[in-house]
Amino acid sequence: MKAGIIGVTGYGGLELFRLLSAHPEIDELFVFSSSKAGQELSNEVPHLYQIFNTKLRSIEQLDPGRLDVLFCSAPSGVSSELLPPLTQKNLKIIDLAGDFRINDADTYRKWYRKEPPPAPLADNAVYGLTEWNREQVKKGELIANPGCYPTATLLGLLPLLKEGILNPSSLVIDAKSGISGAGASPQSATHFSKANDSFSIYKINEHQHIPEIEQTIKTIANVDTNITFTTHLVPMTRGIMATMYAELAAGVNSQSIKEIYHECYGKKRFVRIFNEKTNLFTKQVYGSNYCDLTYAVDERTNRITVVSVIDNLIKGAAGQAVQNMNVMFDLDESEGLNQLPMFP
Ligand SMILES: NC(=O)C1=CN([C@@H]2O[C@H](COP(=O)(O)OP(=O)(O)OC[C@H]3O[C@@H](n4cnc5c(N)ncnc54)[C@H](OP(=O)(O)O)[C@@H]3O)[C@@H](O)[C@H]2O)C=CC1
Ligand SMILES: CC(=O)N[C@@H](CCC(=O)OP(=O)(O)O)C(=O)O
Questions:
Q1: Which residues have CB under 6 Å of ligand 1?
Q2: Superkingdom of the source (predicted)?
Q3: Residue 293: phi, psi to the nearest 5?
Q4: Which residues of the chain fall below pLDDT 70?
Q5: Model ipTM value
């Protein structure tokens, strides 16, 4: 198969390059840059020096007819303009940005403060939360790969919401991310001397992933929610931990929660259910496509705490994108994704 990557010099794009260059079904990989066309990829990223002699091509040189699959890992707002002229029969596209995730144009405008993508294409996009939308992904032509925080959050909450055992108006999600979640472009908040040895909260009640999470809870679990969702920056390179709190319906106990999770994810390759109250940490999934989950039922408060950890660049971005590609091309879902987590 022939694959292309737009945005390969960014963090998500580089992880796509790493995974796809080792993928047994990919024989040719074309890489595109909007700002460094003509240069060697390894000049930009020395960790690839003398391993790959791959030239960055301009996006104008992208011939969609020569590719089977195209990954777009550019900042949100870019793919709305870039992708419509590139869509064509027999080309599958996987977009890592937020552009095609939100169904309602006004909701997109409000949270992203950008113009939404053109309607016919946006309407055909499939939300690529692989574990939950496998059948739609299989038939999809354009996949909106989920956001990193929504992946961690939704994998943790959907099984319980679908069973109707959480009070939806009580949902509180407290999420923390490593700094690579903010991308490769330097910003004040991610400057070493500000972020190191510190811990910060950001986008309180304004995070663009709020409508994505609420929309997916509605479409998959048919539950209306208004979530409280708060994000924090942690001075580590990778990883997301989402800690989620909700009131439990009467009569629900630890045993029933355990059964729901095992029933839902027992046969899913990339979601691992740990025993109740396991002390999860982000490094246990570092560099891998796993989402690890645990939970704790508090009979004193009648609340549940659900904890989810992922690597934001793998299950939260490039790994899930490759997982979606595998499903779309009828390959083994774990093809190219069998790396063990890196530890310590
Ligand atoms: N970082 C993360 O953990 C996650 C990121 N995402 C999403 O994935 C996408 C990529 O994120 P990330 O890799 O972190 O971002 P980066 O900022 O690290 O990289 C984005 C890349 O996009 C390219 N780019 C910039 N402007 C344009 C343009 N106008 N046209 C084409 N390409 C452009 C740049 O490469 P060049 O100048 O060479 O073209 C750049 O390297 C974003 O939409 C992000 O929101 C989703 C989940 C997790
Ligand atoms: C740490 C950090 O800054 N993370 C980013 C995640 C960005 C992302 O995944 O963006 P889209 O889903 O909108 O494409 C953020 O919180 O905005």
A1: 6-7, 9-13, 33-36, 59, 73-76, 78, 82, 96-97, 147-148, 180-181, 183-185, 312-313, 316-317
A2: Bacteria
A3: -130, 145
A4: none
A5: 0.98
